[in-house]
Amino acid sequence: MSYADSKRRNLEFQVGHHVLLRVTPTKGIIHFGVRGKLNPRFIGPYEILERIGEMAHWLALLPALSHVHNVFHISMMKKFITNPDHVIQLSDFELNNDMTYEECPLKIVDFKEQVLR
């Protein structure tokens, strides 16, 4: 415990900061088109509109996420460091109430037929 406490850093976000929001990965569901270890764990960035107590923040979410409550605990957020060279294109997606995402394939690009002896 003493080792863990010495390595832990306290996060503090102020109004106007941008944060990434944690998306819980679920086994067997494809998240944002990538399987396995490379699933994105965070979506965003979203701006903090208001600070509610020490541990909760009110975020400005997209209209596509209107069914998700917009107050989040500090453990669900990660600091966003802006980089003007890196631009992320947001695609339309449906996020469930339990912060999971399920993606359906649009078309099959390539297939291989297995020929046995």
Automatic annotation (TrEMBL):
**Residues covered by the Tf2-1-like SH3-like domain:** 16-80
One Pfam family, please name it. SH3_Tf2-1
- Its domain of life reads Eukaryota
Protein's name according to its UniProt entry: Uncharacterized protein LOC120265095
Organism equals Dioscorea cayennensis subsp. rotundata
